[in-house]
Design brief:
homotetramer; seven-stranded mixed β-sheet
Chain lengths: 351, 351, 351, 351
């Protein structure tokens, strides 16, 4: 019953197998191999357009490289106050971006609202050269709250951003979970809606360590070659990053794995509701937040359930937490089993 | 006949197997897993002392993190003018180090001589705060020329460095090849000789993507946690970095693989000599440099041999290259076969 | 009637004279001159202890150098959300600090409260290495709202900061105005209350361009020599920075000038009150904020008054601004005359 | 007899007077004042074209800002191995430039030769993304050796640079000395010869602290506003930077002062020759290098002459220094008097 994170799972069998299959023989290093070319074409086909693709091993690298590419050192990145780039990357965007500034904004359900973004752009524009000016909007899809932007939401946010000269980045560490849930294509959820660069995550979805920085406008991608190299993120045996991605995307494996993770989250949420516990935010991806009484928390852990507790000051307005309640975060993955959920449900019943 | 680099090879079977073996079940992310603990102990035992270990996927990351840790932004790193950090990392040390300065020094056979280092320290000391002052000495073992520092060489260089307040870094992307060749222990070639931090490479030696930054004084290692994270080099599924290293080191696999690579280089050098071509530098690790007449170069490539050509201005003093000669670099690896060498020898004969 | 800023004034006559007096003859460059030594002693005597002093031409330089010195690139600086370092330095602290993070906190009257700081430290501690951890507390004295921390306030804030390993920086661009107002010595308002480094401003107080970074613990100051130089802030003809400071401090000129500026602010506030307009925040230094109806704003400007308008979302809780009200900021200086205030009062009456 | 540097002199009377004249009244801060507008026009007229001008207080700031503007963090700056940016700015270009790389090149008489630059561009091009690629050529006019590039030299160097996509920066800390010596206009020695950005120095020429970064293509200058601000180099009382420059340029003061300095250097060189000591490099600006026997060195210093000694490994090929000879550098300035030279000559005679 490990719900600590989707990165406590291992490698999906299809992807592990792909590493072995890519192994025989020699291949040019540093991304000059055939497998890498293949994956680039594959990602282009998936997004229905020409793209520039840069594979890296971690989501932090993908985000920080993308943000540094879009934002000058004296620019600001508008993002949700609880976004991963803001709270969990130890200042990687600031480091890669030569001291750029992340500007954390509030937003219900972990999502940014158009009026919030518009107001922030108004505030962080002009007053040059004294103030950092907004240069980039970063959206997290699916969000840290486990919620999802619809294609229309993204289009509206991107329209506002572009109208003021900002570029749009999407942190898609859980992009698969969002696409799997929505009745929309990868293209509709990204460039067709105005996203300029996507951090396309495979690691949480079942890879060992593979993320793609996808440029929907290849003409601005050139210097990313140097950025990636000098950040130490250009693999010499690059074929093994490519192999992970190829297997992730082949035969819709990524969507199948994400659908499973989402379904497990749905089921877990259902079990919580059956036990009288409402999820804090809508369960749209593979994350469920719930307020758990202290005693139940103890029982769950004693019974073998693993999960993290977050600061309860993030709770939605109006929701009251008892002093002893804990804001628990449950994350499911491709590796979560129905049996785990069932055992978890039993622990819930026993309280 | 791929001698382009030791990173055109794939993953050694033992290490690929280890990835699969580490896969089942859940594991805490970000290096908080048992396998990572095990590898840390394993590396400590190998070096016969307490160490602090940080695993990262690339040699550039290992070097740049280590150098940034040892050198203030206004400090200089003394290194060989042909070292990888100087010529092939696209300014990664400067980026990670907030604008530190690499100071490239000449040195016969790809190695730095004590008097060269002493003179450079004298030159880059004092004149504060106008001049960058030497803060770190970085040695490459085995060197880019395929040569090796003996334990006594390292001790002498480190003694000079330490006497002037410099720290000593070793770029050990091919450390295995050096240890395999010399009759010395890993400890003797590092901390016992005065090395403060080692970039211990496994990738070129047979791993997929795994390097260890090894601190021989763990008391100075603390902030490296943040450095690695904010550089995007902390793997979430960290067990797979650890698994590679565990298998690399287990049962002396690393030395066995390196000995094979070295032996293949020896044999290749022998075949060259038999064909009347003397290696440019002593063949001590898994690299052979040779001046190849243009016509032979064409024949070798036509016959299927892959290798790189380097600028011939690096040639040793006194050695004359014909205008049409090419400075060819042949690199062997764990995956090089005797058959490849034999076929290469045949091509040599045919000229 | 120029109340736009205290930097729209020129140079105080005493300080301008000092530039001329320092001019004859040759002097060693880069701070190695006698006048610089004299100013260092003078500042030490003023603060009643041994200090290390680094003169620079701008407040942004002083703040950014000090914060970068106290905060690692992966550290956070706690500061008021409206502080100058947060809103008006175009990311200088982030640039000098290699991508450090400013964490803006709310605070009534432009001041930080102990409980706010304590809570922020609790939030930005631990969760290593994923989150930026609080490393420095920066207090602005006098504040951007024109208010002042008492010695006891500073001591309480510094106690909390130090108890958790943070260092304390004071942005004293208007330190003179604070000291002039309070019945306390420079020592009591800084190191005796726990301040580690002070940006001691002279520019706004009457200098041409001179600020001192004052270390109350000289033992941690060494590398500041390099920081200043490589930021381009080490003057070759350094004697002219020193001359400004010497004249600023000699015969309590700084306090006399600041008392005048403060008195002019008091008078201006009084005139506003007489006209039925209450200052928004307590008038303690040389800044007066007031809500001015749009029509009056027009009349004042038409009559020749110069001042800036700020976003009214900074207003204290409970205070309501009409949609047409403007949050005007009036800043007085050593150069403000009673006549200007009188003319301003006349404009107020005419509405 | 102070020949230590041209920055040991004070402020030229015309410029000191200008500070006083600019003082009365209020002026908008941060360069929004009329005097600044005037200086910008003045510099445009001087260079016979539209320019963008950014005033800063030090040459290090001017150079580092300009180089960072022209060079990406993964780019290289080609410069003379003995240039100020390479040896005396404590890594400022690397800091401002996010870790860019200075590539020091040899060159007779302190000057770079076209073939050297062409070879360096060839070496530092391609091999992307592994190697730092040459992005900028920086020329020092007058050079650290006291020599001068002719307009034709600059044009040839710039042609080579531009042909390969590099931009051309000129470090003109002693630009006045060069222009004063040559029969060429400021325009002919800069943009007409291909210079893209000039660091135009006034400090060494007689100002207190004032340098102008001059963009000959204003269309690429926009972000320099932010660069300067976030480096702490935007003066609030900016009119006093402008006042220095206005007086420096007015009525050809800058050329008159430079001609005097150059003439004093000529005379000093003549006196050395009369004493049997040949200047090491051609004396073209206000710097004279000479090999001084140890005993004479002692006598000169005992007699009150101040100057610096440099490492004699910089000597031209073929010139032999006795072990006890010292490479003395004598720098004259607007403040050097004929009397000083005469007294120096007397000391020379007494040996």
């Amino acid at each position: 019953m490990n719900f600590a994170s989707d990165n406590t799972a291992g490698i999906a069998p299809e992807i592990l197998r792909a590493l072995a299959e890519a192994n025989p023989g020699f291949a040019l290093g540093y991304g000059n191999d055939d497998l890498t070319r293949r994956v680039e074409r594959q990602i282009g086909e998936l997004f229905e357009r020409e793209v520039a693709v840069f594979l890296v091993p971690t989501g932090t690298a993908a985000n920080a490289l993308a943000l540094a590419h879009l934002t000058p050192p004296w620019g600001g990145v508008l993002c949700h106050a609880q976004s991963h780039i803001m709270t969990d990357e130890c200042g990687a965007p600031e480091f890669f971006g030569g001291g750029l500034k992340l500007i954390g904004l509030p937003g219900d359900n972990g999502l940014l609202a158009p009026e919030t973004v518009a107001a922030a752009i108004a505030r962080y524009s002009g007053h040059r050269p004294h103030q950092v000016n907004a240069a980039t909007l970063s959206l997290t899809q699916a969000s840290e709250a486990g919620t999802i932007y619809r294609a229309g939401d993204i289009a509206e946010l991107a329209r506002i951003a572009h109208a003021h000269g900002l570029k749009v980045h999407m942190d898609g560490a859980r992009f698969a979970n969002a696409v799997a849930r929505l009745n929309a294509s990868p293209a509709e959820l990204t460039w067709k809606a105005g996203v300029d660069i996507l951090s396309f995550g495979a690691t949480k979805g079942g890879a060992m360590a593979a993320e793609a920085v996808v440029f929907f406008d290849p003409s601005i991608a050139d210097a990313m070659h140097e950025r990636r190299k000098r950040a130490g993120h250009l693999f010499s045996k690059h074929r093994f990053l490519a192999a992970q991605f190829e297997a992730f995307l082949a035969r819709d494996t990524w969507l199948r794995l994400a659908r499973h993770a989402n379904a497990m989250a749905d089921r877990l949420a259902e079990r919580l509701r059956s036990a009288g516990i409402q999820p804090v935010w809508p369960v749209e991806a593979n994350i469920v937040f719930a307020l758990i009484p202290e005693r139940l928390d103890g029982k769950l852990r004693a019974g073998g359930a693993a999960y993290y507790v977050r600061e309860s000051d993030r709770l939605p307005g109006g929701m009251q937490a008892d002093a002893t309640d804990r804001l628990a975060r449950f994350v499911t993955s491709f590796a979560t089993t129905e049996d785990e959920i069932a055992r978890f449900a039993e622990l819930l019943q026993k309280r």
